[in-house]
Structure formats: structure tokens, C-alpha cells
């Protein structure tokens, strides 16, 4: 029996999640607030399928079939009969609250509601619903069709059954899951990268080593694909400062206290690749 997925938000992440799910055989309804956003999302999916076909990684008829399983709409009611809903709208608690309140009233009792949030506690999102045990974090990584990981996050009340359904969904799309058993700020992935970037920035700030050598240490010594300072430039020093600051505020753990250097870089506009200058010149 075909399973139905609703994805709320057709941006970078939502369209990627819709793409891999449709390819895995899910009937997918993709919802955004404007036709323009939906067109951008579905055009992106089309282009990505075409690239996989051109590279010989996806058969043309499978791409057609997957695209055919996808419906784009501005009508939230289209999510009513979904088995799994994944929310991937802007990272703003008020917007997520509004959506989870509406979905909770709309979807069937057995459906699970997942959020792709990178940092908002799942418990905070679940609290506005009447089904907090059926709310879970399903944190995919960008670009979704390429990145293998899905970080599943248990909110304070998430049930084992909900976690199992979320895992089944993510694995059906070819992802490998890790489970975050406690709803801590930054989950596992953002905590790890934050700790590494903060220490790398402190070593650089205090003149212990150059940015190049710090990154080389991680690449050649630990086999990382990219060093922490190059990662900060790619992600955005501003984004990492914000993420690290949030973890520090929640945990009061000094190791997440963002170094002054990162604040001054953001004040000066040196936020990485986006601005042409970060720890490196781009
Ligand atoms: N960008 C990343 O690398 C990344 C990685 C992991 C997780 N995330 C998380 O995924 C979520 C989405 O991020 P993104 O990068 O795809 O953002 P994005 O800006 O590309 O897309 C967000 C989309 O949500 C839509 N939207 C806003 N309000 C809506 C509503 N009420 N109903 C339906 N759609 C609505 C917007 O129109 C937009 O198309 C965020 O919570 C983000 O933290 C992002």
C-alpha cells in the first residue's frame, strides 16, 4: 500500500526531503504558502532528478514515476490523510507553532509529526499539540539527496513507536539514522561541530596555529573531509555563532562560549564564503 507523506515548506530542505521520499515510493504532497515557492521547489526537484538520470544513477522512467508521485499545493488540508508529516519551514518557533497547532487538528490520530529543525527543542514544538508523544525531530542534512545522515530527536514525550515510524521513514529514503535520546540544545551534530569550531577559533585567536594548520590537523590527522574553520566559512560564521550561543545559553557549559573573535568577525561582516572573507579569503 502506498504510504503518504506531507512535507510542509518547499525550500531547500523540504524540497530535498520530498525528492528522496517520492523516489522511495512515497506519495508526497508538498505544501508551501506561495505558488512561487512551490514552483522553485518542484523545479529544483526536477533538475536534480535530471542530473541523476544524466549521470546514470537513476533510470529515466523511475525519475518520471517519482515526479508523478509528487503533488504541490498551497492548501494545508492536503496533509489531512498523511501517515507522516515533515515540517521544514523557516527556523522560527512561532511559525512552527502555528503549523503544528493546525496539523494537530487536521491529521489522523495515528499520523506522526516530524520537524526538520536544526536547533529548536522538539519538546517546545510538541507542546502546542495534543499529541506530544507523536512528535519527533527528523533532522536531515543539506543537500538532502547526497547527505546520508538523519538525526532523530526524541522530545520529552516522544514515544518509542513514533521514533520507530520516523526511523522507518528516514531509512526508506536511504538514510542512516542516529538517535538523540534527550532533547538537548544542538542535538548531537550541532553540539559536536560547535565544540570543534569554538576550540579551533580559540586556537587561531590565541596564535597557537594558523587557520590552514588547524584545518590540516583535522583533515590529515583525523580524516575529516573539511577542517572546522573551513566548515565555519562554508556554513557561515554568523550561523555558527548563533548556534553555539544558543547551546551555551541553554547548557551554561563554558566549552560552548563563543570566542570574542567570532563575534567581532560577525560585527565586521566577515562571515565566510557568503561575504568573501571569513577565516579565509574566498
Ligand atoms: N539549510 C540547511 O542546511 C538546513 C539543514 C538542516 C535543517 N534545516 C532546517 O530546515 C528548516 C527549513 O530550512 P530551509 O533551509 O529549507 O529553509 P528555506 O528558507 O529554504 O525554506 C523554508 C520554506 O518554508 C516556507 N514556509 C514559510 N512559512 C510556511 C508555512 N506556514 N507553510 C508552508 N511553508 C512555509 C517558505 O516559503 C520557504 O519556502 C529550518 O528549520 C532549518 O533550520 C536547514
How would you characterize this protein structure?
The chain has 282 residues and is of the alpha/beta class. It is 48% helix and 14% strand. The protein is built from eleven helices and eight strands. It has helices spanning 12-23, 35-54, 60-68, 93-106, 122-126, 160-172, 189-205, 211-222, 228-235, 237-251, 260-268; strands at 4-8, 27-31, 70-73, 84-87, 112-115, 135-140, 149-154, 176-180. The chain has an eight-stranded mixed beta sheet, with helices on both faces. Strand 7, helix 6 and strand 8 (176-180) form a beta-alpha-beta unit. Helix 7 (189-205) packs across helix 9 (228-235) and helix 7 (189-205) crosses helix 10 (237-251). The longest helix has 20 residues, at 35-54. The radius of gyration is 20 Å and the shape is globular. The chain starts with a strand and ends in a 14-residue tail after the last helix. The mean pLDDT is 97. Nicotinamide-adenine-dinucleotide is lined by residues 8-14, 31-33, 37, 88-91, 95, 99, 116-118, 139, 141-142.
Put simply, the count of helices is 11
Number of strands: 8
- From the helix content, strand content and strand pairing, which structural class follows? alpha/beta
Largest sheet: 8 strands, mixed
Bound molecules: nicotinamide-adenine-dinucleotide
Identify the strand order in the major beta sheet: 3-2-1-4-5-6-7-8
The best one-word shape is globular
What fraction strand?
Answer: 5-15%
Low-pLDDT windows of residues: none
Order of helices and strands: EHEHHEEHEHEEHEHHHHH
Helix content: 40-55%
Mean pLDDT: 97
Work out the radius of gyration: 20 Å
Report the span from N to C terminus.
Answer: 50 Å
